[in-house]
Amino acid sequence: MSTQNYFHYKRYYLPHHFIFLPMMATLISIGIVKACNDIAHRLEWSILSILSFCILYLAIMLRQHYALGNQDRIVRLEFRLRYFELLGEHSTITEKKLSFDQIAALRFADDTEFLLLLKRALNENLSSDKIKKSIRNWQADTMRR
């Protein structure tokens, strides 16, 4: 894995992003084209297109729903632990003042930048993108697969 930073931290899952999604998009496209051109079987091709779209939509939504729910909980727990380790106090009040996106962005900062960016996020209401762009010593998330 190459060095992780703001410009290179997203990951793709090969079977999902480059096989399943393109296959489903192709199947939907073929169904629409055939439904327009094959009048005798228009209903069958339309049904195939609609079912393919529904399968694609459900696959994307279910995958995202479960994964993001768990990820959000883990990121919040990471923040609470790190806050406690660095400041020796509970993060309940601070956490309520931050959006989830801000909390998630702070996880890429090292310990010294974490405290500085946390104060800036609270005082200046920095967006998650501005927090990420302000990080000088990016702490890569190497546990993603």
Give structural attributes.
elongated, mainly alpha
Helix/strand order: HHHHHH
Uncertain parts:
none
Number of discrete helical segments: 6
Proportion of residues in helical segments: over 70%
Please summarize the sheet with the most strands: none
Describe this structure as you would to a colleague.
The chain is mainly alpha-helical and 145 residues long. It has helices at 14-37, 42-87, 92-97, 100-106, 111-124, 128-134. The termini are close together.
In short:
The chain contains six helices and no strands. The chain is 72% helix and 0% strand.
Fold topology:
Elements (H helix, E strand, L loop, with lengths): L13 H24 L4 H46 L4 H6 L2 H7 L4 H14 L3 H7 L11
Helix pairs in contact: 1-2, 2-4, 4-6
